[in-house]
Amino acid sequence: MVKDITFGQFFPGKSFVHKMDARAKIIITFLLIIFIFVCKNFFSLGVMCVFSVLAFVLTKLSPKIIFKSIKPLLPIILLTSVLQIWYNNNGDVLFEYKKLVITSGGIFTAVFIAVRIIALLVISSLLTYTTSPTELTDAIEKLLSPLKLLKIDIHTFAMMMTIALRFIPTLIDEIDRIMSAQKARGADFETGIIVQRIKALFPIFIPLFVSAFKRAFELADAMSCRCYSGGEGRTRLKQMKMTWRDAAAFVVSLLFCGGAIFLNIYFEKII
Predict the structure, then answer these.
(1) Cα(39)–Cα(45) distance, integer angstroms
(2) What angle in degrees, to the nearest 10, is found between the helix axes of 22-38 and 244-270?
């Protein structure tokens, strides 16, 4: 199950989204994340979900990639939703037993939160699925270039963010390898109550940290051997350039965001 997590991985391709400028993808991603949080009802959230599905279709990636990524996170999504049922007492009472009260408002909020989390996961995953590490670093550096006026080392910051993001798949593979080794020695991670399962995971953390530091030092040595010296005076083989694809993506994104705002205002007035 651990290896099913695909967040942070890059899947090469020649789709419409793959060919977009990385800067445009980052801006659109953050814009959509903000508007997903702004949504107050299922109608506006549905508009953003439709956009997420259309964007994923344009990537020409297999739907299994998203399903495999969501599957390990389902317990977290369900836990967040269940908490909303317990703590939200708005609406009609559907079930009551001692201090446990389930209302229509609680169920509505639980489903709404679950859909919102899945939409956020899909939108944020599309950025890493369709953008190479080099493009992502260059795009972050370009977008944050005004901060150079404040004497902030933007290139190092962008490189750190990209390396941290790309380390996620590496760490996932390492966790799976360590768990397989522990299972071969008789460790049990799948039976018992939740507390027992959490305790069984502790032996994984020490070898994981050791391996992570080892890989970090190996990466530092590799960059040093290639004469890496930061962003000062660095040249690039591929220059970033905005095209009609990026303009079209911006227009469509703004239309969907505008539709979400309209539905927020419209249904707030009539309800």
Answers:
(1) 5
(2) 0
Are residues 95 and 185 located together in one domain of the fold? no
Q: Same domain for 172 and 222? A: yes
Give the helix/strand (H/E) hosting 97.
Answer: strand 93-97
Q: How many residues are given for the chain?
A: 271
Neighbours of 139 (CB within 10 A): 22
In a domain, 80, yes or no: yes
**Token match 């949080």: residue?**
37
Q: Report residue 96: phi and psi, to 5°.
A: -145, 125
How far is the C-alpha of 256 from the C-alpha of 30, rounded, in Å? Answer: 14
Domain that holds residue 157: 153-237
Same domain, 246 and 232: no
Q: In 3D, which of 201, 231, 256 has the Cα closest to residue 43? A: 256
Q: For residue 236, what is the DSSP state?
A: -
How does 47-73 read in b/e, with b if 16+ C-beta sit within 10 Å? bbbebbeebbebbebeeebbeebbebe
The string of pLDDT tens digits covering residues 28-45 is 999 999 999 888 888 888
Q: Are residues 108 and 7 in the same domain?
A: yes
What is the pTM (predicted TM-score) of this model? 0.78
Shared domain for 251 and 162, answered yes or no, is no
pLDDT at 192 over 90: no
Residues 39 and 118 placed together within one structural domain of the fold = yes
